[in-house]
Amino acid sequence: MKLLFCVKNSSRSQMAEALVKLSRANRVEPYSAGIEPGESVHPNAVKVMQELGYDLSGHECKHVSANKKITFDFVAKMDVADLGDAVKAKWIETWDVPDPAQGEIEHFREVRDLLADRVEALLERYRDGRQAA
Q1: Range of the domain at 45
Q2: Residue 133 lies in a domain
Q3: Inter-residue contact 90 to 74 (CB < 8 Å)
Q4: Residue 59 maps to which CATH number?
Q5: Which residue in 125, 98, 123 sits closest to 17, CA to CA?
Q6: Is residue 132 part of a domain?
Q7: Domain tally for the chain?
Q8: Longest CA pairwise span in the chain (Å)
Q9: From first to last of its 133 residues, what are the pLDDT tens digits of the chain?
Q10: Residue 69: which residues within 8 A CB-CB, separation 6 or more?
Q11: What's CA 38's distance to the chain center, in Å?
Q12: In 3-state terms, what secondary structure has residue 130?
């Protein structure tokens, strides 16, 4: 199963990708990319993921076009009105997850924990054989 999380690719999508990797879910390939990628992963996103034992410091922000040849099983879009033909996916879902970029470290922790809940629910749906919500 191929998953893509997209927006600016500097905080939320990077954390979501890392959370899937931390889950060690079998046969799941997480990706993160953005329609308007930032220049680098936000330092507070790196810090809050380090608290869980994941190092985001080597991650780079990518544009969704880097994955143009992939058909994703699932795409979670955050703050993206329309992906147009930028991404091929079997299922696209909008996740209403606040952007922590202007907040303090605690806001990043709250967003990380919200994403962890969303990722776990998503992986559970796939384990149960359900794609859509």
Answers
A1: 2-127
A2: no
A3: yes
A4: 3.40.50.2300
A5: 123
A6: no
A7: 1
A8: 38
A9: 899 998 889 999 999 999 999 998 888 999 999 988 999 999 999 999 999 999 999 999 999 999 989 999 999 999 887 787 889 999 999 999 999 999 999 999 999 999 999 999 999 988 876 654 4
A10: none
A11: 14
A12: coil
